[in-house]
Amino acid sequence: MMDGSKRVKLLPSKKENLYLFLIFAVAFVIRLIHLNSYTSYPAFDLPLGGHAAYVKTALKIISGDILGGKEIFYDNSPIYSYILAGIFKIFGIDFYAVRFLQILIGSINCCLIALISQYCFGMTAALIAGAIAAFYGPFIFYDAEIIVLSWILFFCLISIVIILRNSLGTGYKLSLAGFFMGCAVMGRPNLILFPALLFLYFIFSGNSLKVAQRLRAYAWFCIGVFVIPGLFIARNYAVSGEILFLNPSGGHNFYFGHHKGASPIFNENLNFRGAILLKYREKAEADLKRPLSTREVSNYWYRKGFTFIIENPGEELKLMLKKMLFFFNDTEMPTYFNYYFNRNYSVVLKNWVLTFGLIFPLSILGLVSTLRRGRELMVLHLFFLTSFLSVLIIFVISRVRIPAIPVFIVFAGVGVLTVIEWCKDAKFKPLILAGLFMAPLYWMTFTPLAHLNYADPHNHLGAVYWHKGKIPEAERSFVRALELNQGFEYPLLNLVNMFRQQGDIEKETMYRNWYEDWKQRYKPNRF
After folding, report:
1. Count of alpha carbons within 13 Å of 42, Cβ hemisphere only?
2. Is 253 part of a structural domain of the chain?
3. If you ran DSSP here, which 8-state letter would residue 332 be given?
4. Residue 495: inside a domain, yes or no?
5. How far apart are CA 459 and CA 450, in angstroms?
6. pLDDT grade for 22, boundaries at 50, 70 and 90
7. Is the same domain home to 369 and 498?
């Protein structure tokens, strides 16, 4: 019988602690090698896209403005600005230090994944899960980026460990679990679904507590959840006079994923990429013919999205099915961070093979083999469901799927262990059946669903070179972006503005003429 047949102690023995340290050491060494080679990436010391806003806010915080400015936090991860501010305060404005601390956090996350697996399925499964996490390519990539994902996973995993260890017991410990989950919510607002869904665990998990005690335990958890979001709500109210729950970008993000011709992935056909919130405010105010508050703008786009769903149920269903296929596909759908482009700057990731597609069928095997323990494993199931519903609500991108990966890895560890035990016991019939079961899953996950080109990352590189005064390199990058995606507006705008700033009238005029011709050919419809 697999050693995951029942729960074990969450507190590991000295020998098991040694195994956990080994997982940490392996994960850290891999990430450190990646980080040191990744310094060759031109944008290593210059955050890209919207994520530069976190750095700007962090600089305001360390300069003495504890509120981080006088504007509403429009970004999805406001807590990250405060994390960066703390790092900058200690180490100075050093992006290597930020990335180094994050690979430390990422290595700890591998141990936490192993610890959860050890509690649910035993130490052997935990070692397998910890090893998968240590070698998982997208984890390595995001741990060394200027992005909040490593911290989100850390907060979520700590919360899950406390919940599993506490088993609806001590109230303050549940509040502590809620506190960490609240921190995660302020890094990825869609994770607010997890505390809501966790009500089912508190009510229906296999426990002898009375209903009133279960509700009391859930209340303690919720108190912790709302501590950090409450502070950010108060902060936004202090600077704007508006009560905004989490952040104001939810409305247009929802509309992105639910409108006529919507893509299951982010901005696949959107020509304009900049000042998104401003553009959506302008459109909403133009349609309603009056100035709108930030909350009213968000509500406007929520209504537009829900109207589409109600009036086009067939198209919405097709869109949901496409999102499901993309969610379970091996491809890491990019936004500012392109795993496939950036890995060329890493000696570790350049030829890396351990990606989502390899673990997905094994995780399904592990899930199926443990279905009889549904109540015990409800926390893991609900956390996976949170990330899955998140992409159905908005759209599929790599960094939205990442929070679900620890659960996939935990069950993949069980799947690998199950296969190993069948092999040891010479049980060929279940092995053959498992192979027949997983083969179509491997086919599904590795089937290409979207053609990815590198127009976006080349445009970003051009912006980096421009910022660094490397004009010839910037021009080549912008032109290359246009070659890869002729309908992409941003590189042309950047070329015009860059040469105007340089005072090069000849090239400014040339690229302005290109841009006027582009507008005649493409005439983008941004809404």
Report:
1. 18
2. no
3. -
4. yes
5. 20
6. very high
7. no
C-beta separation of 388 from 196 below 8 A: no
Residue 328 has pLDDT above 70, yes or no: yes
C-beta neighbour count of 171 within 10 angstroms:
16
Strands (E), 299-384: none
Q: How far apart are alpha carbons 480 and 494 in whole angstroms?
A: 13
Which DSSP string do the residues of 29-66 spell out, in sequence order?
HHHHHHHHHHTTSTTTTS--GGGHHHHHHHHHHHTT-T
Q: Of the ranges 54-58, 197-201, 207-211, 401-405, which one carries the lowest mean pLDDT score? A: 207-211
Q: 37 and 346 in contact (C-beta within 8 Å)?
A: yes
Residues 160, 54 within the same domain: yes
Number of independent structural domains in the chain: 2
* Residue 139: CB atoms within 10 Å: 29
Last residue of a domain, one of 446, 466, 485: 446
Half-sphere exposure of 102 (CA within 13 A, CB side): 27
Rounded to whole angstroms, what are the CA distances from 13 to 9, 28, 198, 507?
Answer: 9, 22, 29, 68
Q: Are residues 129 and 27 part of one domain?
A: yes
Segment 269-305, tens digit of pLDDT: 444 444 566 677 888 888 889 988 888 888 899 999 9
Phi/psi region, residue 66 (left: phi>0; alpha: psi -120 to 50; beta: rest), is alpha
Q: What is the DSSP letter of 265?
A: B
Domain final residue, candidates 417, 446, 475: 446
DSSP 8-class letter at 275: S
Residue 497 lies in a domain: yes
Q: Does residue 77 share a domain with residue 47?
A: yes
Find tokens 């970003």 and name the residue.
460
Q: Residue 491 maps to which CATH number?
A: 1.25.40.10
Rounded-to-integer distance, Cα 394 and Cα 508, Å: 38
Distance from C-alpha of 264 to C-alpha of 272, rounded to nearest angstrom: 18
* Residues 143 and 210 grouped into a single domain: yes
Task: Indicate whether 442 and 459 sit together in one domain.
Answer: no
pLDDT surpasses 80 at 116: yes
Q: Do 378 and 513 fall within a single domain?
A: no
Using the predicted structure, report yes or no on whether residue 479 has a pLDDT greater than 70: yes
What are all long-range contacts of 380-384, with beta carbons under 8 Å and residues at least 24 apart? 380/116, 380/120, 380/160, 380/407, 380/410, 380/411, 381/407, 382/194, 382/197, 382/198, 382/200, 382/201, 383/156, 383/160, 383/194, 383/407, 384/408
How many residues are listed for the chain in this entry? 527
> In whole angstroms, what is the distance from residue 237 CA to residue 260 CA?
34
The 10 Å Cβ neighbour count of residue 142 is 23
Task: Write out the two tokens for 494.
Answer: 């950047």
Task: Identify the pLDDT of residue 207.
Answer: 66
Note down the domain range covering 115: 14-230+334-446
Non-local (6+) Cβ contacts of 332 within 8 A are 138, 339, 340, 355, 356, 398
**CA end-to-end distance (rounded Å), the chain:** 57
The verdict on 409 and 507 lying in the same domain is: no
Residue 76 predicted with pLDDT over 70 = no
Q: Answer yes or no: is 127 within a domain.
A: yes
